[in-house]
Amino acid sequence: MGKLKSKMRVLVTGGFGYLGGRVAQFLFGSGFEVALGTRNKCSPPDWLPEADVVELIWDDENALVEACREVNTVIHAAGMNAQHCADNPVAALAFNGVATARLVKASIRSDVRKFIYFSTAHVYCSPLTGVINERSCPRNLHPYATTHLAGEHALLTAAQGDNGLTGIVLRLSNVIGKPASINNNCWNLLVNDLCKEAIVKRVTTIRGNPNDFRDFVSMSSLAKVCACLIENYLSPGSQLHNIGSGQAVTIRQMAETISERAKIQFGYSPKLRVANPASNVSTKLSYITSPFKCASLGDERAALLEEIDNLLQFCKINFG
User: Fold this and answer.
1) What domain count does the chain have?
2) 134 and 187 both lie in a single domain
3) Staple 107 to which of 85, 98, 112, 185, CB 3.0 to 4.6 Å?
4) Which helix (H) or strand (E) holds 176?
5) Per the domain annotation, does 124 fall within a domain?
6) Residue environment code for 15-39, b if the CB has 16+ CB neighbours within 10 A, otherwise e
7) What is the spatial distance between Cα 302 and Cα 68, in angstroms, rounded to a whole number?
8) CB 240 within 8 A of CB 172
9) How far apart are CA 246 and CA 50, in angstroms?
10) First to last CA, the chain
11) How distant is the alpha carbon of residue 272 from its chain centre?
12) Residue 3 confidence (pLDDT) above 50
């Protein structure tokens, strides 16, 4: 997108995390002033030393108001992952739901103009099957889904008030790409796990149903969508968008793609292992996504392959 002329200040919660870190890097490179929100006091990371670091005290609304001062847009990328939500549903609701509502209220008090919330496609169902669009009814009862839905409702309801806030919910499919830091908690994610194993063990192991369909979207496309939403005028109110590639593939097909990319880059094809080869064929998935004409996303298939290549290279450097 090139350098943007504006110097709008963006607060990225979960700024040291997997999604937040990469989005923050892209936004800074596009000309935005970036603040990384984190619950711990620390210095700017070596992968984005020019950023500000803002401490977020999640149970203190007044402290959150101060964190949001002079911020044009909040990108709320912080949240508990699926396993942690299952292990502690009460804590999941307290953070994904209540803390999100508290941050939305603080943003309004600080005159934040836009609030972008990273939710999940899994609010619809698990596993994702059939045709899903933004009008589909969320019916997944897993705490990961229900608590994200609580956060969505907090934002969308607040943005309908007469406060000038544009509230944007992004229901993300499976975002893939290299992390900003090796310390990001992302190595249990399917593609990251397969790429790491392809480098460390020269195998890729599918532990679930290899016939399950998943929609994958590149980290670079997510970052471009965020920049598009920040830079362009949007009327105050509520918006909800599905973010994905719209082209679902099976887990086996993804593992085979990773093997092909490893062959191109490193000269060997990791052996594919399927822990449960007798798995049933799954229902196909069509994840209908929002078009973003203001974001030059380009060829999503090429973007996905580039992210896989970069992730394999990252694993080679850090684990090989």
Assistant:
1) 2
2) no
3) 112
4) strand 174-176
5) yes
6) bbbbbbbbbbbbbbbbbbbbbbbbe
7) 36
8) no
9) 35
10) 33
11) 27
12) no
Residues 98 and 199 in one domain: no
My answer on whether 29 and 73 are in the same domain is: yes
Over residues 59-107, the pLDDT tens digits come to: 999 999 999 999 999 999 999 999 999 999 999 999 999 999 999 999 9
Residue 149 lies in a domain: yes
Which helix (DSSP H) or strand (DSSP E) does residue 274 occupy? strand 271-274
Residues in the chain, how many? 320
Whether residue 157 sits in one domain with residue 143: yes
CB neighbour class for 301 (10 Å; exposed up to 12, middle 13-18, buried from 19): exposed
- Do residues 102 and 236 share a domain? yes
CATH of the domain at 267: 3.90.25.10
CA angle at residue 186 from 278 to 241, to 5 degrees? 85
CA distance 276 to 273: 9
Q: Are residues 108 and 255 in the same domain?
A: no
- The dihedral through the CA atoms of 258, 261, 266, 271 has a sign that is positive
Contact 301, 247 (CB under 8 A): yes
Adjacent-strand bridge partners of 75: 12, 116
Residue-number span of the structural domain to which 191 is assigned: 177-214+247-283+292-319
* Separation between Cα atoms, residue 58 and residue 179, nearest integer Å: 25
Distance between CA atoms of residues 149 and 144, nearest Å: 9
Q: How far apart are CA 205 and CA 315, in angstroms?
A: 16
Helix (H, G, I), strand (E, B) or coil at 150: helix
Structure tokens at 88: 């502690």
Question: Rounded distance, CA 76 to CA 19, Å?
Answer: 10
Whether 41 is in a domain gets the answer yes
Q: Quick one: 154 and 206 in the same domain? A: no
